[in-house]
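DM from R.C. (forwarded with permission)

"hey, sorry to bug you on a friday — could you get me a structure for this? deadline for the figure draft is monday and I only need the backbone to look sensible"
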Amino acid sequence: MATAPPLLRSARPSVRSGRVRVAGAPRVPFGAAVVSLFSGAGGLDLGFEQAGFETLVCVEHDRHCRRTLAANRPQWRLIEGDDPTNPGDVRRVRPEAILTTIGRRRGEVDVVIGGPPCQSFSNLGRKLGAQDPANGDLFVHYARLIDGLLPRAFVFENVEGLTQTRHDDVRAHLHSRFRALGYRLAEGMLVAADYGDPQLRRRFVIVGMQGVDDVGLPEPVYFADPESHASFFADHSDPLPFRPYRTLGEALSEPLPHGREDDLRMGVTDEVRARMRWIGPGENFRVLPDALRPACWRTGRHQGADTFGRLRADRPSVAVRTSAYNPSKGRYIHPTEDRGLSTLEMARLQSFPDEWRFVCDGRPTLVGIGRMIGNAVPVRLAHAIALAVRVQLREQPNAPRRCEPP
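My reply, with the result:
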C-alpha cells in the first residue's frame, strides 16, 4: 500500500475558531444535501439528519457498517467504487462517480462530512500517524474528494491525538489543501458531554466553509458545574442558562429494547464477578487484594487508571471505545451490576436512537457490533456540529449568529 504523499513541514498550525449558538434550534427539514465519507455506523449522519439535512450518498468500506446503513436508511445510497472486490474503498472512489449518482456537478454539493478511520492517530495503539500503511493516507483521500466535489461546507472529524505535535505536518497539509480551494476554517477539540451526550469523549473537528468569513464551532450547551458555565460566559452579553451534564444514570434510566440480535454482552465467570464485587463506583482494579489480581495486574505497570473500573451513575461515562463491553479494557463495569456494558447500553451512551439496529455481515458478534458503536461519532455531538453548519450556511453577512426557524 502506498504511503501518503510528502506533507508540509511548518510551524505548529493554528486555526482560530469562534463559537456558534445552537441551543434551541428547531428540528425541521432544511433540504441541504450531504455526501458522507467514512460513514461508519451512521452517527455523524444521524446528527445531520436530526438537524434537517439529507444524506444522499455514503462512502463506507466496512462490510458490517454497510449492512447497518442499508438496513436502517436504504435511501442513503452506498457508493461501490472502482474495485468490485472492495466496495466502498475510498481510495477507489472518484468524485465524478459520486456526482453522477446524486445528479449534481462540482460545486453543487452542500456539505461533505466524514471522519477517516482514526487508529493511526489515536493515543492508543501503535501511533504511526501518516506512516501507517493501513490507514495513514486516508486523510489525503478525504482532501482529494473535497477538491473533486467542492461543497459549500465540510466537516472533518478525528481523534484528539491528531492535535499532537508529532502530527502537525498532517494538519498543515490539510489546512493548505483546504485554503487553496477557498475555504475558511475553524478547528478545535469538542467534548461530547458539552452537547448532551452522556460521555466525556473528545473529538477533533475541522469545519470549512465557502463564503463565510468567520467560521465557528458549536457553542457548548451543557456544563460540568456552575463554575465552568460562569467562566465560559464571563464576557458574554447573552449567556445560556446553566444546564448540567447528562449522566450515565440518566441515559440508562429508560428501558432498553429487548430480544434483539444486536443486544449482546460479554460473559462473566464467577471468578471475574468476585473481583467486580470489590470495586465501587469510580474505583478500578487497584483496590483488589493481591490474591484476587491476575499476575499481570499485580505490578500495575502496564495498566491504565481506568482498567477494570466501575462507572459512576452520577457522572457522564468515560469515552465509549470499541471494546466498552469488556471491563478489562477500561472503566466499563456497569455502575450497579457486576458485568460489563451491553452493546445497546453502549449505543445509548453514544446517543443512537433505540430503533437503530446494528447489523453484521453474518452472525452478530460482540467485536463487530462493538467496533461499529465505538468508532461512531456521538449523535448529539454530531447534531450540534450540524446545527452550527446550518446556521452559517443560512446566515447573511454581519447577521447575528442565532439559529432561527427557516
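R.C.: lifesaver. Residues 18-242+378-394 form a domain with the Rossmann fold fold (CATH 3.40.50.150).
me: no worries. The beta strands are 18-20, 33-37, 54-59, 77-78, 111-114, 153-159, 184-191, 202-209, 216-218.
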